[in-house]
Design goal:
- Strand 11 and strand 12 form a beta hairpin.
- With 259 residues, the protein is of the alpha/beta class.
- It has 9 helices and 12 strands.
- The structure holds adenosine-5'-diphosphate (ADP) and magnesium ion (MG).
- Adenosine-5'-diphosphate binds next to strand 2 and helix 1.
- It comes from Streptodolium elevatio.
- Keywords: ATP-binding, Nucleotide-binding, Transport.
Length: 259
């Protein structure tokens, strides 16, 4: 794992706004994710959780406010007081450092588990196949799938596919991992194996933002938690505090449904 500057936030959001047409989806998000933190985001469907993750990863562009990842302004370069939009090549460089895992695993169906994990380092980083293969094998071992390296996605369970997806994201050696409800599409008996992999990553010091409804995971593994509703952060704090002693009615109402 690379050396991290622990004094500087890995993600800093200041009054981040995002709208689609006339619909305001993010209405001024302020938050800070420190290096090596497991930062959980919970909230009802439609509150803007995915949109926020997508803004961090350049899949959406914010309309107002500022967003920094590892000290770099997302989408912009600052010179004096002026901001300049990044070129596509610069955006691509920023995105390399961020791994994302979605609810749906989105593996390449025509490639084996090993092929899926090797693909981005070879195509994007121009690594040799030998180097990419060696790391991919280690990563498949780390997610407990060394023996499935030659299996195609259709031959794997949902939990196994999601673990390949995590290995695939890790293959780019990201500084930050974004998880958008990584277990929501899984059968209940497969949730644990994915959460175990994520727990291991957390123990190894990976900085992670995790959108999840798994409150047990948030409580045990999370270092910080925000409750989002209707495009704002309603409440934030240590997961155990927020989950056991929520202060706001909206948080209480949500937690009474999911806990
Ligand atoms: P969550 O992940 O918390 O369920 P989302 O970020 O997916 O919430 O969505 C928040 C709101 O933004 C929803 O009302 C959704 O319909 C809207 N939204 C998300 N993406 C788009 C888009 N590309 N175009 C229009 N509306 C969108
Ligand atoms: Mg979502």
């Amino acid at each position: 794992m690379t050396v991290v500057d622990k004094s500087r936030p890995m993600v800093l959001a200041e009054q981040v706004h995002k709208s689609f047409g006339l619909i305001d989806v993010l209405k001024g998000i302020d938050l800070q994710v420190m290096p090596q933190e497991v930062f959980c985001v919970v909230g009802p469907s439609g509150s803007g959780k995915s949109t926020f993750l997508r803004c961090i990863n350049h899949l959406e562009k914010i309309n107002a406010g500022r967003l920094w990842v590892d000290g770099r302004l997302v989408g912009y370069r600052q010179k004096g007081d002026k901001l300049y939009e990044l070129k596509d090549s610069e955006v691509a460089l920023q995105r390399r450092d961020i791994g994302m895992v979605f609810q749906r695993f989105n593996l390449f169906p025509h490639m084996t588990a090993l092929g899926n994990v090797m693909e981005a380092p070879v195509q994007v980083k121009r690594e040799t196949r030998a180097v990419a293969r060696e790391r991919a094998l280690k990563l498949l071992d780390r997610v407990g799938l060394a023996n499935k390296k030659d299996a195609y996605p259709a031959q794997l369970s949902g939990g196994q596919q999601q673990r390949v997806a995590i290995a695939r994201a890790l293959a780019m050696e990201p500084k930050l991992m974004l998880f958008d409800e990584p277990t929501s599409a899984l059968d209940p008996e497969l949730v644990g194996e994915v959460l175990d992999v994520m727990r291991g990553l957390a123990e190894d010091g990976m900085t992670m933002i995790v959108v999840t409804h798994e409150m047990g995971f948030a409580r045990e593994v999370g270092d910080a938690l925000v409750f989002m509703d209707d495009g704002v952060v309603v409440e934030s704090g240590h997961p155990r505090e927020v989950l056991t002693n929520p202060q706001h009615d909206r948080t209480k109402a949500f937690l009474s449904k999911v806990l």
